[in-house]
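Q: Predict the assembly, please.
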Amino acid sequence: MNTDSRTVEVRGLSKAFGENHVLRGVDFSVSKGEVVVVMGPSGSGKTTLLRSLNFLEMPDAGTVTVCGIDVECAGSSKPSREHQKRIRAIRQRTAMVFQSFNLFAHRTALENVMEGPVSVKGVPRAQALERAMHLLTQVGLAAKADEYPGRLSGGQKQRVAIARALAMDPEVILFDEPTSALDPALREDVLNVMRDVAKLGMTMLIVTHEVRFARDVADRVVFMDGGVVAEDTTPQAFFGEGSSPRVRQFLHLIET
Amino acid sequence: MTELFMRSLPLLRSAVLMTIFLGLTSFVLGSTLGLLVALARVSSMGVLRALAFAYVSIFRGTPLLVQILLIYFGLPRYGLTLDPVPAALLALTMFSAAYLSENFRSGINAVDKGQWEAAMSLGMGYWKAMLRVILPQGLRIAIPPVGSRLIALIKDTSLASTITVVELTRVADQVGASTFRYMEMFLMVGIIYWGINQILTIVQTVLENRLSRRFV
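A: Predicted assembly structure:
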């Protein structure tokens, strides 16, 4: 077990899809309680990096250590039993919020939030229900508890998804462009919920293009470019006058 | 026609029951087997996938009539003698399982892969994700083609008449032969088949509406 305060640590992470080398030796870490925003042009490997942390993508090489559990990556060949066990342990201690929400379509909002605790962690139903109701209230959707996802707006779905993530009591939440699929008008509701989560001291790793959010909430900004971490700095430095030409070019692009 | 109908009513009544019994029983058994075959088809184990593929290929690729005759007349040579009804049930089950497995498989594959990812990211294993997240949605998607399969199966039971099972078609044939009124008899059972299938269509539509009102 890792005794330091690193919740996520990645060394030499590489991943290629065919000829396309998306990650080319990424080194990077997140400490407990930190809010880290990952930015970068599309195709720079941000999402792949995030999805490698809970092994929705199997990296080709490198080491991933999450919550003190380390996994040596060896490509998409079938992972050994020991590997699979570790991967599941990591997944149970992390949570992910997806760009396309991915709420369980056959379950109500409330059931979506209860699903993980009940079926994965074995929490008694009554207890899970009470907690789920509490979390839905926290994200402002107590009134929608019994609606199916098909009847919720995008912003509402994403808030339910955040409640579902919180219900697992994760040590870190991975956000994969949580507002990219939303109308600008609905984004702020989701970002506000994320601000609240950050205030509670949750460790968060967020791939996003939301500059204002990153400036206000992030402890660090990681800039990915060409499959490597090109910058790893404070929001003040990243968005300030002294940032590199590549960063300024990128920021110019997303702010227009 | 009415007096002929009244005269053959006792025979028709038991024949309808036999037709429905054959159709529904082989549908239930075939669905169960078909679901297992579908799960094997989408499994990550190559051997299971190959076996399931071979099963579907054989039982979907040969005529049901040949399968029925093979089981009833062929198997006794190897010491396996089945009565007409079990033989027909076995053939109908194996045959429908092949088709139904394809319906279930396409339903499973139609579930958005984001549903898998969400389940996995919560730490579910393959089977938990399959049973709690993927199958409930995949089976719903499969309702229309599975309903069509049940209707086809009701009609396919008529082939059991060739191995002396007394169901609708055989009764029509027998009464037709003894009265020389084939036209009226086959018209009569044709209408009965149609009526059974209309009822099943209504059941399917109600089921579909009820489930789709709940989500998406």
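Residues 184-199 of chain A form the longest helix (16 residues). The CA atoms of residues 32 and 203 of chain A lie 6 Å apart.
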